[in-house]
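hiii, so i know i said id send this last week but things got crazy w the move. better late than never?? heres the sequnce for the chain we talked about at the cafe, plus the structure i predicted for it. fair warning i was half asleep when i ran it
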Amino acid sequence: MSVNGVDEVEYMMDDEEMGNTLEEEMDDGLLYARGATGNEVENENELLTMVTDTSSAQARKGKDIQGIQWDRLNSTRQDYRRTRIGSYKNYENVASSGDLADKECQQVEQGGSYYDFQYNSRMVKPTILHFQLRNLVWATSKHNVYLMSNNAVVHWSSLSHELSEVLSFSGHVAPSEKHQGSLMEGFTGTQVSTLAVKDNLLVAGGFQGELVCKHLNQRGISFCARMTLEDNAITNAIEIYTNPSGSNCFMASNNDGGLREYDVEKYQLLNHFRFPWPVNHTSISPDGKLVTVVGDHCEGLLIDSRDGKVVSRLVGHRDFSFSSAWHPDGLTFATGNQDKTCRVWDVRNLSSAISVLKGNLGAIRSIRYSSDGQFMMMAEPADFVHIYNTKQNYQRRQEIDFFGEISGFSLSADGESLYIGVWDRIYASLLHYGRRHIFKYLDAL
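okay and structure toks below
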């Protein structure tokens, strides 16, 4: 992620780069509340915030999943969607990259129905600190989600509908365990840029190259470290995984061009690979042998996980990439780019992507595969999460459509639950979708 020497505050949540929030668009006259006679309501904000959670039963009866009262606004949902797509400003590091890539995208049939809406909780308030980094929501099971909210990691239970704070970064954080290289004095006022949660391990990365590790089933913090003292130090992504020897590890992608691998048992640095540009995201193959590396370069890399040597270059994207993910079969993987495309690659022939998939309004900021490999999901910076059926060669998709910036999205390990964090000053919430199952024996009744 390119900083170009500017102050960090300038690339934290800049509305010009993010696009207008719904609240601002309402203030701009795109949406405003009406009274019973059609006149503008005196206390518009009070009306707009009188919104409750939405259940699947309510949605089936016609309630908007976000609780937006379209009948009280001067625009229909369809009209506002068209306006939103036309006015949303996609951030590009390479001018007109989206227009150039658009010509390469394949036609995909809409109408897939793979995940059904379950619930929208407005008690949960996802937040974002950086307009390009959107990996701040993680589901550890079908009912348990961890996400960033107001400078704290919080836990949400979809069973009890209870929200609890797990780790606050608003004050001082310091490790309670002693490990070589751990910064025992800890940190104060850490700004969390990225997050990963898996197998009871939480790893947070910060704007100053901080790493904070906590086991969810233990009290206190296990490890704190500052990976680099360089000015351009932001931690862009973290991936937790099991290496070929069976040890638990995590990788940190950093703006100083570094890719660092740590073991979880002693938090020791196992590998440090360096690249000539900021590393925005990495993902490791299911067998642990290959790593996809993308960053502030139009080309991506496939490297050997043991020594960091380049196995192949990935040529095709027209802008900088911020996401990647592997199919469970270990043969295909996907990369997401600011040129508004997701490209799917086959390790057996990397001369070009086997599929080029298009977003509606912005960069592809996050990608996930279901554990059975049947679905690939990609999230834009706002409003859309797309679900592709891999068994139909990415030719059919479901489009999840809402309004607001996406702080992150996550699939549970069993693929049963999909959670989407929505950031907005009024309509911030956590969307929950469940996998649809077809019980064929019912057809005989």
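btw Residues 4-11, 32-42, 44-49, 440-445 have pLDDT under 50 and may be disordered. thought thatd interest u
miss u guys!!
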